[in-house]
Structure formats: structure tokens, C-alpha cells
Specification:
- The protein is an alpha/beta fold.
- It is 30% helix and 36% strand.
- The strands form three sheets. Strands 1, 4, 5, 6, 7, 8, 9 and 10 form an eight-stranded mixed sheet that branches. Strands 2-3 form a two-stranded antiparallel ribbon. Strands 11-12 form a two-stranded antiparallel ribbon.
- The chain starts with a strand and ends with a helix.
Length: 215
């Protein structure tokens, strides 16, 4: 299932538009906060798809039966760009466990590269609801590589991919290479991908905009 929140009129589109805006991007703190807010909204929406159970809550004046999330998900992020969205998701799933995976492009030339996974810190994920955060889903290859790396720690019950901007090509790739029940939560879908695998119009390099230029 694909859930494109940008298709609907809401304040959410303000956060996406500010992420894209060349002038607003100059404020790295605001860029990080907008990625965080996107993560918060997507976390709220995907929470509707989790399992719930009835729980009795005691108040100072009595008791109230409420339906609460049965089990906290596991939130995984692709370093470094995924960190602000990761914090946004954790703001809503504040008792969730976390996993971190380092993935990067190793270029042979401007248009030819491999995806390398070098580092992973992850608890057990067997039979858990897994959320993977990455703000840009350009080709989908990094997401698939990271998912395969996470499988070393178990097989999740459900998979939620959380991203700010994606291409249709990346969505199709992820759907082909991840299990059929994967759910993709996205803020906007762009149509163009350059020869260097950058999204157009996109928003640029999310990691650089959030944390500064890298060598």
C-alpha cells in the first residue's frame, strides 16, 4: 500500500514545501525541524494500522477503558539523513526501540555506483512492526539493502517505509524487492530522476542540508 499524504490538503504540505524551498533551506535548524514534523505526521497516520488492545486506565476519579497500541514498533533509520525523521517518529512512539544503519553510495564514476552498508546497531526485530526512515527515496536501492541487512536480526511482522520525497521508480523498486505487505508512507512523489540518481524537483541532499556539507 502507498499512502501519499501530499495528495490531500493539510498543514502537512506546508512542512513539505518548506523542505523544498531554496531560501528556507538555508536555515538548517528549520530544515531539521521540518523533517522531524514530517516524521511526526507520518508516524501518527501509520499508527492507525498497528494492532490495538483494550486497557483500563485509572484516573483520580475512576477508571476508563481505552484502546492503546498493543506493542511499540521498532524504528530504524538510514544514517545520517534519516536522523531528524527518526526523532519525529520517536516523538510519537516514545517507548519504541531504535536501530541505525549506515548506507552510502560508493561511486565508480558520476553515474555508476554501488550501495554500501558499513554499520548497524539493531535489537531483535523478529515478529515486530518495523518502521524504516529515510527522507529521500530516489532509486529505492538503499532502502532494499538496509532492509536485507536488518533481516540478520529477525523477520518483522510488518514493514512501514517512511519518507518525505520519493520517485515512482523507487516505490516500484521497493515493492518488487520487499515483502508484499510493505506499506510506504510518503509526503510527495516526484516523477524525474537524473542520471546521477537525484530526485527532480526534489529538495537537494537532505543530509547536507540538515548537518552540513560532506567531503
Amino acid at each position: 500500500m502507498i499512502y501519499n499524504l501530499g495528495q490531500h490538503n493539510s498543514i502537512f504540505n506546508t512542512f513539505i514545501s518548506e523542505l523544498r524551498d531554496l531560501e528556507i533551506q538555508r536555515d538548517s535548524m528549520r530544515f531539521r525541524r521540518n523533517l522531524e514534523r514530517v516524521g511526526e505526521v507520518l508516524a501518527y497516520e501509520l499508527s492507525k494500522k498497528l494492532a490495538y488492545e483494550d486497557t483500563v486506565v485509572r484516573t483520580p476519579l475512576g477508571e476508563k477503558e481505552m484502546s492503546l497500541v498493543k506493542e511499540q514498533p521498532l524504528v530504524a533509520s538510514i544514517l545520517r539523513a534519516g536522523l531528524p525523521m527518526h526523532h519525529g517518529v520517536l516523538n510519537y512512539f516514545d517507548r519504541a526501540d531504535s536501530a541505525f544503519v549506515s548506507a552510502y553510495r560508493k561511486h565508480r564514476n558520476a553515474e555508476d555506483y554501488d550501495i554500501k552498508v558499513e554499520y548497524m546497531a539493531c535489537p531483535g526485530i523478529d515478529k515486530r512492526d518495523l518502521i524504516i526512515c529515510d527522507p529521500m527515496l530516489a532509486t529505492g536501492s538503499s532502502m532494499v539493502m538496509v532492509y536485507k541487512a536488518l533481516l540478520l536480526n529477525g523477520t518483522p511482522r510488518s514493514i512501514h517505509v517512511v519518507t518525505a520525497i520519493a520517485t515512482q521508480e523507487a516505490i516500484d523498486y521497493v515493492r518488487r524487492h520487499l515483502p508484499d505487505h510493505v506499506q510506504i508512507w510518503v509526503g510527495g512523489i516526484d516523477t524525474e530522476l537524473t542520471a546521477q540518481s537525484y530526485i527532480v524537483p526534489g529538495l537537494g541532499d537532505a543530509g547536507d542540508l540538515a548537518y552540513g556539507m560532506k567531503l
